[in-house]
Amino acid sequence: MQRTVSRVRERLPDAFLTGALGLAGGGVEAALRASPRAGLGPVELAGFVGLSCVLGAGVGAALGFVLGGRAGAIGRLFGGAALGALFGAVTWRYELVLNESLRNPTVLLGIAGGAVAGAAVGALLSRIPTRWLLGVAAVGALGTAWRGRAPEGAASARPSVLVVSLDTTRADAVGDKPVWSRLAREGTTFSQAIAAAPITEPSHLAMFTGQAPFRSGVVSNGTQLGTRPLVWQELQAGGWLTAGFVSGFPLHSRYGWAEGMSVYDDDFGAWPGAESLTLVKAWNQVALKEHALRERSADRVLARAERWLRAHREESFFAFVHFYDSHGPYTSAANVALGPPPRDGAPLQLPAYWPAAHRSITSTDWLRRAYDAEVHDTDAAVGRLLDALGDRLDDTLVVITADHGESLTEHGYLFDHGDDLYDPSLRVPLLVRWPGVVGAGVTLDCQVGGVDLAPTLRDLLGLPPGTEAADGVSRAGALRGGACTDTPVVSSTTAGRFVETPPVDHAFRSEGIKVIRHQAGAVELYDLAADPGELSPLAPTEALNDRAEAFGLLLGTGGPAASPDMDAETRKALELLGYVEPEGER
Question: Which positions ≥6 away from 580 have C-beta within 8 Å?
């Protein structure tokens, strides 16, 4: 016992030194990782610094204790070298070559090289007096407070804009919801809004650029956006404060969505900012089977978005808020009131990404009600966002829409979307509220597309039309009381085909006729007035064939499909969200 106590005492000085070294490293990393775009408040920034420092100090102290205990400076060198080697190896593996095979020589040699370089740096730094290391940690903390401060705007005569996207929400799912019903009385509703894709990323890109997927080439989730004319980039250049709060992996900033945003909150972790830290990323590789957090619930989005809106509602802003809750599997707390789902009989053929406990459900009726409960919760979340605007609500242009719908058994698709171009997945809600500018209690039955959003916003806000080729048209005139005419809408999908050159199916909706062209060559034709359920394909006629041929010519004016990111992390996250078929099932 006495010998053990003696060894502990012998190793404590080294543990203290390497703990101080890790603390300094944590402070420096916090400062390097802090970004105004993350939108962290003072308390969250303090927590971020604290977590980084505690992790660094804890790991450093543990290494110093285990490897220390040698006389004089040698023990300190061992501990400091071990800490540096750890950070060097982890940084290489989880920052630079995260998705490469461990057997890849570049990975192995890089890890070894990072460890050697880190060991040398750590050994050198371990000779620095402890009080200096504590000073470095303090400087890092102050640097975090400086680098991470949120941008501020200025009060202006420009109108503010709030766009809310309800992921996976059908047009017929919102009509009886309290907040939606109130907004319908206060604004203008489009009853025939058609999404550009039944997939999150391409549909949102179409909304915010005015370009359909067949033209932009972005047809798959997990695709780098590159240089795109996102409408909020123009608003930021025009003096608006811009912010985005998203809740699903397809809208993560890694794909380019944060360009033009003063704040872009895509932090799905429980501790604000933690997911940017090297040691947390390394831990996620062990603790999370998909190696990345991929979504978050509305209450966590609201916690950040409400605070930001309250802080900036007196300024001119553009805010984009995305709620993912209605996406399957349906796990809303409101579902508890439905009672346990029936599991007697043969299980339904639910999507493979649903957890096993859900895939044993046998009742489509229960799942319909569960989906409705998700939409109800999201509707309430929209109400909270509007409340955050206070007395500035009537001065704010508010748009509520969805990226795509959800099949609730139609056409044999059970509680899923993405693989088909039928209306349950494409017809979406669209409502605009702006007292004094937009009519109240108005419903417009003309066909409009998700691609119309960007040109409509530009027109309403007095911005010049976009310079890029666009497929959308402004609906500002109709919103101000003018005529609203149908325009053709092209929708595209490539769900489940996560390959370098994804094959694409397209749909063309015009004058009550819908044409679906499959990559394999088959063509479906529907008369939507006589057959709104798209159950009875029309027999080809000369007129219909001419329309289908003209559609093919239109598609020829677009660009090639862009390749999605093929890395393992992206594939796994999208697979678990249902956007990619599991590799063993393709």
Answer: 221, 222, 496, 498, 571, 574
| Predicted structure pTM score | 0.88
* Location of each CATH 3.40.720.10 domain in the chain: 160-485
Instruction: State the chain's mean pLDDT as an integer.
Output: 85
Is residue 530 within 8 A of residue 520, CB to CB? The reply is no
pLDDT-wise least confident of 15-29, 230-244, 525-539: 15-29
Q: Is 576 helix (H, G, I), strand (E, B) or coil?
A: helix
d(CA 112, CA 448): 57
Residue 182: half-sphere exposure toward Cβ, Cα within 13 Å: 7
Listed residue (420, 407, 416) closest to 506, CA to CA: 420
Local confidence band at 195 (pLDDT 50, 70, 90 cut-offs): very high
Q: Residues near 281 by Cβ (< 8 Å), separated by ≥ 6?
A: 94, 95, 98, 275
Q: Which two tokens stand for residue 398?
A: 């508010």
Placement of tokens 């979340």 in the chain:
381
Helix (H, G, I), strand (E, B) or coil at 190: strand
**444 phi and psi angles, rounded to 5 deg:** -110, 125
How far the first Cα of the chain sits from its last, in Å, is 61
* The listed CATH number (3.30.70.20, 3.40.720.10, 3.40.50.300, 1.10.10.10) that belongs to domain 160-485: 3.40.720.10
**H-run or E-run covering 50:** helix 42-67
Which tokens sit at 552? 């093919």
Q: Indicate the pLDDT class of residue 153, thresholds 50, 70 and 90.
A: low
What is the full DSSP assignment across 87-124?
HHHHHIIIIISTTS-TTSHHHHHHHHHHHHHHHHHHHH
Residue 336 CA to its chain's centroid (Å): 27
Q: Are 23 and 56 in contact (CB under 8 A)?
A: yes
Dihedral over alpha carbons 503, 509, 514, 518 (to 10 degrees): -10
Cα 80–82–88 angle (5° rounding)? 100
User: Are 53 and 141 a contacting pair, CB within 8 Å?
Assistant: yes
